[in-house]
Each structure stands twice: as C-alpha cells, then as structure tokens.
C-alpha cells in the first residue's frame, strides 16, 4: 500500500445507517473488499426510526396475513405519491422487486410479523406489525387501486428501528471492516476519478484485514411472519423517534440504540472493528445525549454537539482510505444543516428536525465538492398526524377561515404539506361523541409517547364551548366559515372524498377545536424531514455532474441521494429507498453492473 494511504478496499462506504449497511452487504456479497466509515458508532436515523419498510405486491408477510396485493396496484398508488422524483421505469423496478426486498431483509435477520393493525394510526402499537402506512384508503388514491396495508414494521417492542438496524449491521459486519468515530472530510479525486476519502478519526487501532465471507452463496429465505407472545406487552424502554433514512414516525432514539450497535459491531470483530481512543468515549456519550433527549430539544442537541466538534478538533488525527472501485456516500440527510434549510426550505423552520446530529448535509457537500449536483433540496415532508386515536379522523380539519382543506384520513405528510401551504394554522373540530370515543381508544391504540401527545391535545391543546360560534371565537377562527363547515359536514359525497364510514354530522355539544398548527410545541411537535440530495444515475447509483454524466467512482444512497421518496413521503418509503438505493450503489461499485 502506498505510504499516503492508511487503509484501502475495493469499496468504501461513508455512513453506517440502513443505506450504508445495505450498500456494504451488497458489495461484500458481490465479492468486493469493503470498509465502512461512520462519524459515530453507526445507526444514524435508521436506528432510531420506527423500523417501517414500505413494501407490497404480495410480500410473504402480506400473504401470511391474508392480504391481497399486486405489483400493478402498488405501482398505481405510488405513481401518484412519487410523481417525477424518479422515472416510471425506476418506480416499476422498485415495485417489482418489493416482495423480494422483504425476503432479502428477512434472510439477513430482520424479523417481520403478519399481524394487521385494524385501525387508522400513524404508527401501530405492540401487537401489530403490518398496517396502512400511507394514504391508500383516502381519496383519490382508493379510486386508483385496491388499497392494501404495505407498512412492514420490523418485529420488536416500541419503535423498531433499532431491531432492523441491528440485523443489517450484523450482516454487514460479517463481510466488511467498520471504522467508527471517523469523520469523512474530503473525497480524493485523481485524474477525474474519486479514489479515496480523507478523514479525521478518534479510533486508535487499525481493524484486522477481512475478506468477503461465504454469505455470497447464502440463499435468501422468506420471512416467517408469525406473531409472538410478546407482541401484546407494553414496551419498557420504547421511545419515540425519523433518515433521514429514515422511517420513525414520531420515534425518538432510545438509550438502547448505541448498545444495539455495539452488539452488532462486536459480532463483526473477526472482520475488524476498530477501537476508540480515550477521547472517543466522551464523544459517544455526548452524541447519545444529543440524540435523546436532544431530538425533542434541538437547542440542547446543538450545545451538546458543540462539545463533540470541540473534541474532534482537538484530538482527532488524519486518516486516509483508498477506494479501488468506488466510494458510496450514505451519510444521511440535511435536516440539521440550518443554512441549507434556511436557503431551500424557510417555510419549515419551526418544525422538529427528524434525524440525528449527523444529518447535517455533510455527505451531500462531499459529493458537491467532488463535482456532483444536487436536486430537490426544497422538498421537505412535514408530519401532522391526526391519529391515534383513530376517532380523530372523524373530525373536520379547518384553517383560519373555518373551512376544511383536506380529507382527514390522508397520511400525516399529505396533511402537513397542505397545512404549510395554507400558512401553518389549523384546528380539528370535533363534538362530544368524538371526544368520548377518542378517550376510550387511548390505551389500546397508542404507544406511550403517542398517548402523551393525545392527552396534550385533549387537554392544553384545545378549546371547547357550547356553540359553534363560541368555540370559533375562543380559537380565533372565522365563526361564519366554521358554521358553514358544520352545516355541510356529513353530506354524501363528502366534499374532499373522505370515506362515508368516517363522516357523520358534528351536532352534539360541547364543540372542541384542537390546535394542530405548525410550530414549536413540545407537547405536539411537527416533525420535518428533507427529501432532496445528490442527483444519481437511477440504474447505477452513480452521482451525476452538472452535465448529466457520472462522477466516476462516486455513488450516493439513502438520504444523500434523490430517490423514491423525494417528492412526497409515506411511512416506510425512506427506509425502503435506503435498501433499494443502498443495494444498487453497492452492487455497481463492486461489479460495474447496473441494478
């Protein structure tokens, strides 16, 4: 090895979340020598997500649950959601390979379960692991194709991202070397080709050499989605979350996340996992705290992260790794890059950044500095879920004029998009029977963090009165407009196409207006997730330059890249895209063959 390189491999992966892990697995199983880098200990937003993968077309889990679905139905629905984020050909490949993706994940240790959630929810409680995770049942989507539940939640108590990530990390480490606490600072470009990565590291010792394992010959086995006796128990440590990669719905990281990653990395010691310096351990602690409770208190997370950067500046040392075939950027999104958010998505300031402190746009900037071009940086998803409890979907969501603007059974991101477009102010009008039903549903339909949010909305987050005019006055909503909404609500067909089973007159006082406005509220935050990234070749994952040609030797995946979810978002679509784009990039980097 030349003296100016500290290590080398065929493929170098920057970022060890779901996309990075899938890229590493695919590259190693294609015969490549792989090194994976991560600024921290791996996991990223994927590990603190809800662990939901959007998949359909007749997956093994759907079949075990007795759910009928088809590739054409999935494609018809996603064509509306995805828009022109990717080509029709790429979306068709995604849908056609969807059932196989679940088989592939199961073969690499991700557990699934065939228990279908029977009610509308943003994220199912323990006991349910297959659910309608988008707007499939809302108008106009249900008229385009037969709805089917496609949200495949990894089987685990609480939010399941740590379960999904631990399985992928363990599989990746059986064929790759992992260097944690190593921050990529520059891509090395020689003669027009990306040939390596310059880093700063807090890792003390070099990992042992490794060669790809015999996983390349392992045949994938279909998942065995059978419920376990644990699925009805309440979680003990479940915490709410989002990558960028990924799919937390309201999930925030748990203290178990780093431990799950540590267990996964220890399983890969035979293939080389480097150890931290003394300065690396404080960084682990600060990063863990910046993730939780920092996710809910962004100012605290920023202060803790300043400690991380100070330690890195003082104690890290240079480290360079050569990539003989290619570098895959999989370092997360840019929700915590305040400058990028101000420039491209100013309307979303005030939302709760959904991601870890590593979702700072660094991977995207590396790609741009090497000659890549970005796209869709102004695409942001804001999540304003009405459920759980499912009773809330029976209410009427109004803006300041007192008038409805959406089918309330739509997915939370669809509601959020329309909310932002109307200035960010909205209230849910319900009457006494809806409130009573909502209270009765709290225990059965929620995880603890959802229960806290629902109780906030039913308490401090509402105003009530005996008449429509009085409740409108108390909320600052147009009384005339609200009265017109109440008179028309319950008619058939519904003005916004809401299913007749979810619409009934709101006629029993007291009337309640629940404040669902966008803004900074600890009791009911509005998570935001940017969806843009580096433009890539949709057959190879190679980063594109301003002329549309490939930046040779450079790939991007997950939220470092424009992908399936870069137009609009439904739960599980980001993690599914992490798998799809990560495998695509890893395969082409290792073999030169299109996906």
Number of domains: 2
Percent helix range: 25-40%
Q: What percent strand? A: 15-25%
CATH class of the largest domain: Alpha Beta
The low-confidence parts are 208-271
Region (Disordered): 199-276
Cofactor: FAD
Keywords: FAD, Flavoprotein, Oxidoreductase
GO molecular function: steroid dehydrogenase activity, acting on the CH-CH group of donors
Structure description:
With 595 residues, the chain is of the alpha/beta class. It has two domains: 7-381 and 527-588, FAD/NAD(P)-binding domain (3-Layer(bba) Sandwich), CATH 3.50.50.60; 384-515, Flavocytochrome C3, Chain A, domain 1, CATH 3.90.700.10. The protein is 33% helix and 16% strand. It is built from 19 helices and 20 strands. Strands 1, 2, 6, 7, 8, 9, 19 and 20 form an eight-stranded mixed sheet that branches. A four-stranded antiparallel sheet has the order 13-14-16-15. It has a three-stranded antiparallel sheet with strand order 3-5-4. Residues 208-271 have low confidence and may be disordered. One of its GO terms (molecular function) is steroid dehydrogenase activity, acting on the CH-CH group of donors. Residues 233-263 have a biased composition (Basic and acidic residues). It comes from Actinophytocola xinjiangensis. This is FAD-dependent oxidoreductase 2 FAD-binding domain-containing protein.
């Amino acid at each position: 090895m030349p003296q100016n390189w500290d290590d080398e491999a065929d493929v170098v992966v920057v970022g060890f979340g779901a996309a990075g892990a899938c890229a590493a697995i695919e590259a190693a199983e294609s015969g490549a020598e792989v090194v994976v880098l991560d600024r921290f200990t791996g996991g990223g937003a994927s590990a603190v997500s809800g662990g939901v993968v959007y998949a359909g077309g007749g997956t093994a889990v759907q079949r075990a649950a007795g759910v009928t679905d088809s590739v054409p139905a999935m494609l018809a629905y996603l064509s509306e959601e995805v828009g022109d984020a990717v080509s029709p050909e790429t979306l068709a490949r995604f849908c056609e390979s969807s059932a196989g993706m679940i088989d592939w994940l199961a073969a690499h240790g991700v557990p699934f379960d065939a228990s279908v959630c029977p009610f509308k929810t943003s994220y199912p409680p323990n006991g349910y692991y297959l659910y309608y995770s988008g707007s499939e049942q809302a108008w106009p989507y249900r008229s385009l194709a037969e709805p089917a539940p496609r949200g495949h939640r990894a089987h685990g108590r609480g939010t399941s991202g740590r379960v999904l990530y631990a399985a992928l990390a363990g599989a990746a480490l059986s064929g790759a070397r992992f260097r944690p606490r190593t921050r990529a600072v520059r891509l090395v470009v020689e003669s027009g080709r990306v040939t390596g990565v310059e880093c700063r590291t807090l890792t003390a010792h070099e990992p042992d050499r490794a060669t790809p394992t015999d996983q390349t010959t392992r045949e994938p086995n279909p998942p065995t989605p059978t419920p376990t006796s644990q699925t009805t128990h309440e979680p003990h440590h479940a915490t709410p979350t989002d990558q960028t990669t990924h799919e937390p719905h309201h999930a925030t990281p748990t203290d178990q996340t780093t431990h799950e990653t540590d267990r996964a990395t220890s399983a890969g010691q035979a293939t080389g996992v480097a150890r931290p310096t003394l300065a690396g351990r404080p960084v682990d602690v600060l990063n863990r705290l910046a993730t939780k409770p920092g996710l809910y208190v962004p100012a605290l997370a920023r202060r803790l992260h300043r400690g991380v950067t100070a330690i890195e500046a003082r104690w890290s040392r240079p480290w360079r790794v050569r990539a003989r075939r290619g570098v895959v950027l999989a370092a997360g999104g840019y929700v915590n890059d305040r400058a990028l958010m101000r420039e491209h998505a100013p309307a979303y300031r005030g939302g709760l950044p959904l991601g870890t402190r590593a979702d700072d746009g660094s991977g995207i900037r590396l790609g741009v500095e090497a000659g890549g071009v970005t796209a869709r940086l102004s695409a942001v998803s804001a999540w304003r879920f009405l459920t759980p409890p499912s009773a809330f979907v029976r209410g009427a969501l109004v803006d300041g004029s007192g008038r409805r603007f959406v089918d309330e059974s739509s997915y939370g991101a669809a509601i959020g998009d329309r909310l932002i477009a109307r200035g960010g102010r909205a209230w849910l009008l319900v009457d006494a029977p809806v409130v009573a039903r909502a209270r009765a549903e709290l225990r059965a339909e929620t995880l603890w963090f959802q229960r806290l949010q629902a109780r906030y909305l039913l308490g401090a987050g509402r105003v009530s009165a005996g008449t429509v005019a009085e409740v409108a006055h108390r909320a600052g909503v147009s009384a005339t407009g609200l009265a017109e909404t109440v008179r028309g609500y319950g008619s058939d067909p519904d003005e916004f196409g809401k299913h007749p089973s979810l619409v009934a007159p709101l006629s029993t006082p007291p009337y309640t207006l629940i404040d669902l406005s966008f803004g900074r509220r600890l009791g009911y935050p509005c998570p935001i997730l940017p969806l843009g990234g580096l433009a890539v070749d949709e057959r190879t994952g190679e980063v594109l330059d301003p002329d549309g040609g490939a930046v040779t030797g450079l790939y991007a995946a997950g939220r470092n890249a424009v992908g399936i979810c870069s137009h609009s978002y439904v739960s599980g679509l980001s993690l599914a895209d992490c798998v799809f784009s990560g495998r695509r990039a890893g395969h082409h980097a290792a073999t030169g063959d299109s996906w």
